[in-house]
Amino acid sequence: MRIRIDRDKLAEAVAWAARSLPARPTVPILAGLLVKASNGQVTLSSFDYETSAQVSVEAQVFEDGETLVSGKLLDAISRSLRNLPVSVVSDAVKAELECGPSRFTLQALPVSEYPALPEMPASTGTIEASVFDAAVKQVIPAAGKDELLPIYTGVRIEIDGDTLSLLATDRYRMALKEIKWHPTATSEVAAAIVPAKVLGETAHAMGAGEEIVVSLSANSLGDGLIGFAGDGPNSKRQLTTRLLDGEFPKFRHLMDVKANIVVRAKTEEIIAAVKRVSLVAERNTALRMTILEQQVILEAATGDQAQGSEAIEAVVEGVSAETETTTAVGFNPGYLGDALGALDTPYVHFTFTAPGQPCLLQGLNDIDGSPESDYKHVIMLMRLPS
Fold first, then answer.
1. Can you say how many angstroms the Cα of residue 218 is from the centroid of all Cα atoms in its chain?
2. Do the bridges between strand 261-266 and strand 315-317 make them parallel or antiparallel, or are there none, so unpaired?
3. Which of 1, 10, 58, 154 lies at a CB distance of 3.0 to 4.6 Å from 90, suitable for a disulfide?
4. What average pLDDT does the segment 251-260 reach?
5. pLDDT score at 221
6. Contacts of 53 (CB under 8 A, 6+ apart)
7. Under a CB-based contact definition with an 8 Å cutoff, are residues 57 and 18 in contact?
């Protein structure tokens, strides 16, 4: 193989493919990045038997061929090169990179031992890339991080005709986002549970393109596969990943919170207040929100060492002068910050049922308008000390 490629194109392509490399490969060959060159294109691939990534970029191809080299090392080298054209020459034993005065020689791994990448399933539909990226960003904060409970580390994708729903929960908070998309078949109904980390990185990496093609295998659970294809800055990218197996918790009914108390406030103001007051919050203690007639007061403390409080102007319904002294709820400060940060509206709408019951957060474009129904974030409230 003998090619010449722009340094930025190479670095971006290697970074995309290398992100799917396993940190501790069970088989040494999986640490390799497969580089193929033909017909004016260079294709880089990685695979760990769970997730595969592939990216194609334009290049000058003087001699077709392929090589397999250490992905992490190639990524580090590509990032460090000067902004000059890069020449790559390889044979069965080594790959040589030359960029200006810099020269590197990498040991070639046996291509014949590298596993075949899974085929991309048939297209299920397409969605605007920026819309999908924004939607994924709103739900993944609610996904779990505990690998001992793998089903909670995923995002459930539900397809019902031209509506695509994203759902995530870690048992203490839940997020739901519904968006319109373009299914291949208008009667399409399907569901899949996708690892949240993979979904987030993929949506972000493809978010600058025009659209993303979503491809879901017919067997959508267990051994199922989902694929995403889209554009990067200078490349064509695609990724496949195995679906998570298990029963995703049914929580849509918990989104129907009956409003006994409603609080509306400016999103930026309450985000800033939560960040400031949380600085003195003791680990595993609640951020107290006291709800008054025309404001809410946020309070936190670390025993007797530090206390913090801040009042925020708000529009409040359901609290009167007779009840305001006892109307207080407790939030996990991290969960509240994540939920508020996921909103893309100037105002936030809180719906409370009772101090110990879930709280529903929704976005508001106007302080006197109706909350947006396409995005809902529910947080389980914490008990406050008596």
1. 24
2. antiparallel
3. 1
4. 85
5. 42
6. 16, 17, 19, 20, 45, 46, 47, 237, 238, 239
7. no
Cβ neighbors of 245 (< 8 A, separation 6 or more) are 193, 221, 222, 223
pLDDT at 282: 84
**Sign of the torsion angle spanned by Cα atoms 103, 109, 110, 113:** negative
- Any residues with CB less than 8 A from the CB of 253 and at least 6 apart, and which? none
Mapping DSSP onto H, E and C, the string for the chain reads CEEEECHHHHHHHHHHHHCCCCCCCCCHHHHEEEEEEECCEEEEEEECCCEEEEEEEECEEEECEEEEEEHHHHHHHHHHCCCCCEEEEECCCEEEEEECCEEEEEECCCHHHCCCCCCCCCEEEEEEHHHHHHHHHHHHHHCCCCCCCHHHHEEEEEEECCEEEEEEECCCEEEEEEEECEECCCCCEEEEEEEHHHHHHHHHHHCCCCEEEEEECCCCCCCCEEEEEEECCCCEEEEEEECCCCCCCCCHHHHCCCCCEEEEEEHHHHHHHHHHHHCCCCCCCCEEEEECCCEEEEEEEECCCEEEEEEEECEEECCCCCCCCCCEEEECHHHHHHHHHCCCCCEEEEEECCCCCCEEEEEECCCCCCCCCCEEEEECCECCCC
**Residues 239 and 51 sit within 8 Å (Cβ to Cβ):** yes
What's the rounded Cα separation, in Å, for the pair 61 and 43? 12
Q: Could you give the CA distance from residue 288 to residue 386 in angstroms, rounded to a whole number?
A: 12
Give me the domains of the chain, ranges plus CATH numbers.
2-113 (3.10.150.10), 123-251 (3.10.150.10), 256-379 (3.10.150.10)
Cα–Cα distance list, 121 to 127, 150, 226, 238, 257 (Å): 16, 24, 7, 11, 39
The reported pTM is 0.90
pLDDT tens digits for 74-96? Answer: 999 999 999 999 999 999 999 99
Measured CA to CA, the distance from residue 233 to residue 4 in angstroms comes to: 19
Nearest to 176 by CA among 263, 257, 245, 239: 257
* Number of neighbours of residue 330 by Cβ within 10 angstroms: 18
**pLDDT value for 209:** 87
pLDDT of residue 220: 41
> Is residue 341 within 8 Å of 279, Cβ to Cβ?
no
Lookup result for tokens 């090589």? 67
Record the tokens describing residue 344, joined without a space. Answer: 């893309």
In the numeric block, which tokens belong to residue 296? 């809410």
